[in-house]
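During the reporting period the student researcher (J.K.) took over the structure-prediction task from the postdoctoral fellow and processed the backlog of single-chain submissions. One of the processed entries is reproduced below for the supervisory committee.
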Amino acid sequence: MLQEQVKRATAETVWTPPGADGWTFEQVKGLELPVVWELWNGWVQPCGRTDAWHNLVRSNLRDRLDAAGQGTCCAITGVPVVIEEDLVVKPDVVVVDAGEADAAYVPVERVKLAVEVVMMPASRSLDRFLKPAVFAEARLRNFWRVERLEDSSPEVHEYWLHRDTGAYVSACERPRHRGRLETDRPFPVNIDLASLVRL
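J.K. obtained the following structure tokens:
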């Protein structure tokens, strides 16, 4: 008996899923669209546009985390994280084992840290509420949220996965990092946060 081939999405068909269950990652992976997108409950959703501050913080944070990983871990951007077959998100920065540096996508269980840089107001609700809840349910142990303060300096909110409740809790000693980010999760990190907004 011939196995039915998976119907793949195209740039024209992707906005209308083939059935009530929507698309799966297998059907949409590799799809090239003119926007950055994620897969939420089988529906392809375009991500909000980013601004210069967001892009600078994201790139510099990736570089600092990559250096802090000391060759055993690496930080990457723009990589889909597969949570379920119909749920795929693209955190601003993810930290994975060094062997995953060139991965086209990463299963959530291989992610050591996910970071979201909040855009105002486009992704505020997603970055502050929905994505952390999704990552916590997937048992991702470390999550950071980067906010922009009034003086344009970044503030990092650090969350750990609570072993018993399965929800994120603020880091015990320094739940919010201003000026300098110092933590030992997922590995020792010491970053001058002002450097994240310098070219």
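The committee noted the following: The radius of gyration is 17 Å.
J.K. will present the remaining backlog at the next meeting.
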